[in-house]
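Reading a protein record of the kind used here takes only a little practice. Each token is a code from a learned vocabulary of local backbone shapes. With that in mind, consider the following protein and its fold in token form:
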Amino acid sequence: MIKKIVTPLTEEKVKDLKAGDSVLISGVIYTARDAAHKRLVDLLDKGEKLPIDVKDQIIFYVGPTPAKPGKALGSAGPTTSYRMDPYAPKLMDIGLKGMIGKGSRNEDVVNSIKQNNCVYFAAIGGAGASISKSVVNSEIIAYEDLGAEAIRKLEVVDFPAVVVIDCQGNNLYKIGPNEYLKSLK
């Protein structure tokens, strides 16, 4: 069964998601990669205001290609998430509820996901052209000097993702292989 989610991603919505769930996300999500994350955390460390309010939001780890004429965004494949691991817990502490990327997360991030009732989604690597079809509007809202890594506000309709780590800390990257191995017996 595919679960449909409409942002903002509230705590109630997060609690309904389980590792392995396929989801279609509609509404607003933001993009940011490691350079933007560093700037955001530097602002937090200085006690300054962020250029976006991350409360109940989702950040997609992506550096999209330029949009073709008539399109909102170019190819938008997920970036490997571990590069955001040093920064993600501070953003979750101030209300970020979801992250979209690919690959595993470190224990600090998993613990922060559980502590803050958040969720980590995976998008399919190599499917950036297909993923970008769910983006209906894209606007750079911060750090334009970072080019593809600028923070964008995306409006999405039925953005496909899979819950990898749910708010309980259940991790599909660990559960999946174990279930497969059990099925071979």
